[in-house]
Amino acid sequence: MTERVRRGHRLRGRRGPLRRIGAIVRVASYSLIFTVRGAKPAPRFVLLDGVRCPKLYESRELDVAVYVLEFPEIAEHDEVKEPELGRGRLEVDEPRECRIESVDRNYIRATIPSYVPRPGDAGAPITQDGYVVGMLASYWTNDMLGMGPRMDVALERVADHLRRTRSSTA
């Protein structure tokens, strides 16, 4: 592998490309890969540059799936913060400007005027000032509006899950 795994890269499943990585966050000695869940249950594992990453957590309500990357040294880790109204960036193949229009308890909504997301862009990170604040889950072309889960909420839910289960994975 020539470059480190980072947010925006694509995950693969048994049948081919899946979603993008929304964020990679370090927890204890592991790296947790966050992406969107989608309409169907998340696969039990994903492949990342040939490394099998098992699913740790998923939430249908929040539309989040989290996988464990057991080799943190191959990843570029992200910092997460609470989203704010205003400018942001959708990180796909080339970063695109967006504007976060609303923030509620679990989701953000952003207008993305210069880009129409393509299949496989689900999970793409939305950033502000270099911090990951959300992930793209849905897009409406008539409004140029994207919606997705807040990363700070997703991280908090996973931390709660790990505390409740006292998982040995993190």
What is the structure about, briefly put?
With 170 residues, this protein is mainly beta. It contains one helix and 14 strands.
Which properties best describe this structure?
170 residues, Thrombin, subunit H, mainly beta, single chain
Give an overview of the whole structure:
The protein has 170 residues and is mainly beta. The protein folds into two domains: 10-78, Beta Barrel (Thrombin, subunit H); 86-153, Beta Barrel (Thrombin, subunit H), CATH 2.40.10.10. Helices cover 9% and strands 45% of the residues. The protein contains one helix and 14 strands; from the N terminus they run ββββββββββββββα. A seven-stranded antiparallel sheet has the order 12-11-8-9-10-14-13. A five-stranded antiparallel sheet has the order 3-4-7-6-5, covered by helices on one side. A two-stranded antiparallel sheet has the order 1-2. A hairpin with a 2-residue loop joins strand 5 and strand 6. The longest helix has 15 residues, at 151-165. The protein starts with 9 loop residues before the first strand and ends in a 5-residue tail after the last helix.
CATH architectural grouping of the largest domain: Beta Barrel
CATH domain class name of the largest domain: Mainly Beta
Q: What's the structural domain tally? A: 2
| Biggest beta-sheet profile | 7 strands, antiparallel
Bulk shape: globular
The amount of beta strand, in percent, is: over 45%
Read across the widest sheet, the strand sequence of neighbours is 12-11-8-9-10-14-13
* Beta strands, count: 14
The ordered H/E elements are EEEEEEEEEEEEEEH
Low-confidence stretches: none
* Class derived from helix and strand content: mainly beta
Global Rg? 15 Å
